[in-house]
Design a protein that fits this description.
The complex is a heterodimer of chains A (148) and B (404).
Chain A: H1 2-14, E1 24-32, E2 37-46, E3 51-53, E4 66-69, E5 75-82, E6 87-91, E7 96-101, E8 104-113, E9 120-130, E10 135-146
Antiparallel strand pairs in A: 1-2, 2-8, 3-7, 3-9, 4-9, 5-8, 6-7, 9-10
Chain B: E1 2-3, H1 10-20, E2 27-36, E3 41-47, E4 50-56, E5 60-67, E6 72-77, E7 90-95, E8 100-105, E9 113-115, H2 118-136, H3 138-156, H4 161-195, H5 200-209, H6 215-223, H7 233-244, E10 258-260, E11 266-268, E12 276-282, H8 287-291, H9 293-303, E13 308-314, H10 320-330, E14 336-339, E15 369-373, E16 379-383, H11 389-401
Helix pairs in contact in B: 2-4, 3-4, 4-5, 6-7
Classes of the chains: A mainly beta (148), B alpha+beta (404).
Chain lengths: 148, 404
């Protein structure tokens, strides 16, 4: 088991420019709700010490996490992308309440298929991450939701 | 082999990007495999962004693929579902042009043995060394795992913030006790690269560990490596990374720029010749950066009369208003401010003008990063390490300006 962890570490380390941190990793899954409805789930695994931010943060705060779903008219989004409770802190620098996630968190998007379910849905997530002493500039990661 | 939909596995996705970009397929690889615990069924092969299924018949299977690099990094899994991709569900391997055989145990893919690949032989050799190191730190590793589990359990049980916070401190301590193990890993990697410069795996190890090397050290290792492997995509990426290490480090010339400042006045690196310049890479949305502003103001007040200038380079190209508000709010308008100056292709994160991005010239990856430049335009210090940065910077500035 430990060896596999080492291999994973190799993968992580190589997955980005060797100088760069990569504290948030995304995985996806899909849950079928009914014949025409699906729930797209994006899970973020966040390394200890790092924070991922909510989709709604005050205007002058950090940059929010943002999902974009590429519809091509195959489906309709039902409601907004849901997120977990997270932690809300009163940040003294910004002088405002800021919501963030740590360890791991899940985002969910309900969709309604128009005619035929597409095989996969392409989306992306734009996010930034900070720990107590530093921040990583926002970046975008591609998410693929595979519909069975 | 049947084409499946592309399945994204976060772990593998970015890694394979560089390989996937290389479309020139030259050669093929072939693995003859046997599997225990599965007579007829399917296994899955990941290469680049592609996942294929492979049919297992009477406990035998064959994997073929294109070699896009001299050595190809692939993963073999017992599932195509990434949520089930546990540690025992897959193994990653180096495939080569020579004929290879693979022995799989369906219940535990991580125990797979690949024969006929020299690169993989070297991985096994290296693993034997790291296994020994892990054994030495078994107690510390077990403690670390136990605390992680405790934290996850406490979270699942919705324990209070105080309880979680307390576990985090334990976790931090446990991680601290593992530091010497990581140091030993690193030394094992350097030793392997010294002993096996012609191994493909040395390229991988250098990429993993380059963060802890200087440009000269990394370059020296790279030069000793096998020319055969330096033609591949992975080597190209590594070369670019090593070249980047020359930027923004002590001894290197400061990255030139020529832009306009927050007030619309032209500004360029040469304007600061003859003075010490602290280039502060920050952003309005970077809390840790802004927490440091009161301290910077103090330093500026103390050393400005002795010849220190500060230039704030902000990662706020998306929203100039936020940038201006933050400068005003933090009262740092006393020194000069510019933006990184990059533009992105609409709707993407692709830079259309990387040559205009000031951060590129200093190899900036994390905020805040501060770079101290001497009166001749040569970098004398870089502060991007986190907690002790301020103390180090204070000491350097005190030394430079003592007696002035």
């Amino acid at each position: 088991m430990k060896k596999v962890i080492a291999i994973l570490m190799i993968l992580f380390a190589l997955s980005v420019n060797a100088q760069v941190y990569n504290p948030v990793k995304w995985t996806t899954s899909v849950v079928k709700i009914s014949e025409s409805e699906y729930e797209l789930i994006a899970k973020a695994a966040i390394e200890k010490g790092w924070h991922l931010y909510s989709q709604t943060v005050p205007e002058e705060g950090p940059l929010p996490t943002k999902f974009s779903f590429d519809g091509k008219g195959e489906y309709l989004k039902k409601g907004n992308t849901k997120e977990e409770e997270g932690h809300v802190v009163n940040d003294p620098i910004y002088g405002m309440k800021i919501k963030y996630f740590e360890n791991k968190t899940i985002f969910k998007q309900r969709i309604k298929i128009k005619d035929k379910a597409p095989k996969q849905i392409n989306a992306n997530v734009e996010f930034m991450a900070c720990d107590d002493t530093k921040c990583l500039p926002p970046k975008q990661v591609e998410l693929l939701f595979k519909i069975k | 082999m049947k084409d499946l939909n592309i399945i994204k596995i976060a772990v593998l996705f970015l890694l394979f990007q560089s390989f996937a970009n290389n479309c020139e397929a030259q050669r093929k690889f072939k693995i003859d495999g046997t599997v225990t615990g599965l007579s007829d069924g399917k296994i899955y092969v990941l290469q680049g962004k592609k996942m294929d299924s492979v049919t297992v018949s009477k406990g035998k299977f064959q994997i073929t693929g294109e070699l896009e690099d001299p050595v190809e990094y692939i993963a073999i899994a017992n599932t195509s579902n990434q949520r089930k991709m546990t540690e025992k569900a897959y193994v990653s391997l180096f495939a080569e042009a020579s004929p290879m055989t693979l022995q799989l145990n369906y219940a535990d893919f991580s125990k797979a043995k690949l024969k006929g690949s020299k690169a993989q032989d070297d991985v096994y050799k290296y693993d034997a060394t790291t296994d020994k190191i892990r054994l030495k730190y078994k107690k510390e590793l077990d403690q670390f795992d136990a605390i992680r589990k405790k934290y996850d359990d406490a979270r699942a049980a919705k324990k209070s913030e105080e309880v979680l916070e307390a576990i985090k401190y334990e976790d931090n301590d446990a991680r601290g006790r593992l530091e010497p193990m990581y140091k030993e890993y690193q030394n094992a990697a350097f030793q392997f690269m010294k002993d096996n410069p012609k191994s493909y795996y040395s390229l991988f190890l250098l990429r993993m560990n380059s963060r802890n090397l200087s440009y000269d050290e990394a370059k020296k290792y790279y030069e000793s490596f096998n020319p055969l492997y330096k033609k591949g995509e992975m080597a190209k990426t590594l070369e670019a990374e090593i070249e980047n290490m020359k930027k923004g480090v002590p001894g290197a010339p400061a990255g030139p720029f020529n832009t306009v400042d927050i007030n619309g006045s032209p500004i360029k690196l040469d304007d600061f010749k003859g003075k010490y310049l602290l280039v502060d890479f920050w952003a309005s949305w970077c809390v840790p950066c802004r927490k440091g502003n009161p301290h910077l103001l103090k330093l500026y007040a103390e050393y400005k009369p002795k010849g220190l200038e500060i230039l704030g380079v902000s990662d706020d190209d998306r929203d100039h208003d936020k940038w201006k508000k933050a400068v005003e709010k933090d009262g740092i308008g006393v020194w000069k401010h510019v933006l990184r100056g990059y533009e992105l292709k609409q709707g993407t994160y692709e830079k259309i003008n990387p040559e205009k991005d000031i951060s590129e010239g200093y190899n900036i990856h994390v905020l805040p990063t501060k770079i101290l430049v001497d009166p001749n335009g040569i970098i004398v210090a870089r502060y991007d390490g986190g907690e002790d940065d301020d103390a180090r910077m204070d000491k350097d500035l005190a030394t430079i300006f003592s007696g002035k």
